[in-house]
Amino acid sequence: MGSYTERNERHHPMAKMLPRMILIGLDLQKGLRDRLAEDFELTDVTRSDEAIELLLNSEFDAGVFEPGEVPDSEFARRLQVKINDVDDAGGTLLDLDAERVSPLNLAERLHLLESRVADGLLNLFGWRHFEVRLLDRETAKLELVIANGITPLPIGHVIHAKVDGNGISGHVAAVGKSYICRDSEKDERWVDGMEGGRSSLTIPLRLHERTIGVLNVESADPDRFNDEARLLLELYGRYVAMTVNILDMLIVERYTTNKRLSNNVLTELESPISEIEAETSTLLELASDEPAIQEHLGRITESLAAMKARIQSCTAGPQTILGAEEVLHQEELEPILSGRTVMVVDDEPVVRQTISAVLQKRGCSVVVCKDGSAAIDEIRDSASRSVYFDLVISDVRMPDRNGYEVFKAVKDANERTPVILMTGFGYDPHHSIVRSSQEGLHCFLFKPFQIEQLLEEVYKALVIEADAG
Predict the structure, then answer these.
(1) Do residue 262 and residue 227 come from a single domain?
(2) At 160, is the secondary structure helix, strand, or coil?
(3) Residue finishing a domain among 268, 295, 317
(4) Residues 6+ apart with CB under 8 A from 416
(5) Three-state secondary structure readout of 235-300
(6) Is the pLDDT assigned to residue 63 strictly greater than 60?
(7) What DSSP designation does 348 have?
(8) Which residues of 52-66 are buried (b: 16+ CB within 10 A; e: fewer)?
(9) Are 241 and 125 part of one and the same domain?
(10) CB contact set of 370 (below 8 Å; sequence gap of 6+)
(11) CB-based burial of residue 67 (10 Å sphere; 0-12 exposed, 13-18 middle, 19+ buried)?
(12) Are 76 and 115 part of one and the same domain?
C-alpha cells in the first residue's frame, strides 16, 4: 500500500510542494483521509510530545486539528505562532545569568523562578492559578515548590505519585501523561485546590524521559482547557522542568560545597595546631625553672585549646550556633524579651539547647521541642486554651514534619505570631522557606549562624509583633 505521503508522490509529481498537515491522535475514516491526502502532505503522530518536536523543527502550512474540528490552514498558522511564542518564553525562563543568580540564596532563587513561571503562564495563556510540585524519588511524595492562587494541603496531608487515591497530580506523576479535568464536579480524581475551581490541566514535568514533577493549572470556569492548551503547556513544561532542575542542582552544589569547604578547613588546620601544641609542651618542660615563661606558655596553650574549639564549632555546620559561649556568660535581661514565651524546634540537641539557654538568659520563657510533630501538638494544645506563643523558631529539615508544616500550624493558631526558620547550609528539600515566605514568614537563617544574628531577628520580630498589637 505505502504511506499516504508516498502515494501522493506517485500521483503528484510535485507532491513535495503540497501544504503539510499534521494529524495529532486522530483515527480518520478512509474516505476522509484519502480526500485530505489529495491536497495535503499528511504527517501522523499519536502523542503530543511528538507533535511538539515536529512543530518546533518544521513548518506546517495546513491544518492541525482535533477530533470534531474541520481542518483549517489558519488554525495551523496560529498554532505555529503560539508554539514559537512558548519557545521564546521558555528561552527567557532558562536565561539564568550567573552574575545575577550566584549571589542569591535558596529562597531568592526560587522566588525568581516563581515570578518567571507566573509571568509566562499569564502572558502566554492568561492563567493565574497554578502550582509546581517536584517528585521526591525516595518517598514518592510530590513536594510543593511554588504556587499561586491554589490553597496548600492541610498539615499532614501529602500527595504521592500513585495512579489512584492521590488526586490528579498524583495520577499524572505516576503515569507520566497529561490530564484534563473538564468539570471538577464530575471528576472523581479532583481534589480541591483553588477556591471555586471547576477545571484543570495537569502535565508531567519530564527530564531525560523521567518524570520529575507536575505542573497544575486551574480555572474557575468549567471546560476551560483543551488539547491545544495541553500541547502548548507540555512544551512550556519542558522549560519549567529544565529550569527547576538547574536551580536544584545549584542549591545542592552550594550545600555540598559548603560542607566540603568546612571539612577542608578543619583538616588543613588540625596539623599545624597539633605541631604548635607539641612545641609548646616541649618548651614547658625546658622552662620548668622559669615561672614567667611557663605562665606565657600556659596562656598560649589555653588560646590553642580555645582556637581548636572555635574551629570545630565553625566547621560543625548545622549542629552548632556560633558565638553562643560568649553570649551565655553575659547576665543581661532584655526588656523586649522579658516574660515572652518562645518555642524552639530542632532535632539537633545542641542547637535547641543553645538557643533556649541564650533566650532564657535574656528573660524569655522557652518551650523546647525535639521534632515537628511535638511542636505542632504543643501549638494546637496551647491554642485550644487560648494561649499563644510570642515567637516560634524552627528548623526546616526534621525527620517527621518539615518547617512549613510547623509554620502553617503557628499561623493557623494565631496569624500574628512571628516565625523564624533555620536550615543547614541553605538546604531546604521541602521548599519550606519559599512557601512560608509567601505567607508571612518573618525571616530565615542559614546554619551555622552567629547567635547575635538570631537575637537581632528575635528583637525585630517581637518589636513588629508588639507594634501590630
Answers:
(1) no
(2) strand
(3) 317
(4) 465, 468, 469
(5) HHHHHHHHHHHHHHHHHHHHHHHHHHHHHHHHHHHHHHHHHHHHHHHHHHHHCCCCHHHHHHHHHH
(6) no
(7) -
(8) bebbeeeebebbbbe
(9) yes
(10) 345, 346, 347, 349, 352
(11) exposed
(12) no
pLDDT digits (tens, 9 = 90+) for 198-208: 999 999 999 88
**pLDDT above 70: percentage of residues in the chain:** 74
Q: Which residues contact 405 (CB under 8 A, 6 or more apart)?
A: 155, 156, 372, 376, 432
Cell of 339: 516574660
> Does residue 97 fall inside a structural domain?
no
Whether 127 contacts 265, CB under 8 Å: no
Helix then strand then coil, in percent of the chain rounded to 5, is: 50, 15, 30
Domain CATH number, residue 343? 3.40.50.2300
CATH of the domain at 145: 3.30.450.40
Measured distance CA(406)–CA(423) in Å, rounded:
14
The residue range of the domain holding 357 is 324-468
317 DSSP assignment: G
Q: What is the pLDDT of residues 381-439, one digit of tens each?
A: 999 999 999 999 999 888 888 888 999 999 999 999 999 998 875 555 556 776 777 67
Structural domain total, the chain: 4
Residue 182 amino acid letter? R
Do residues 456 and 285 touch, judged by C-beta distance below 8 A?
no
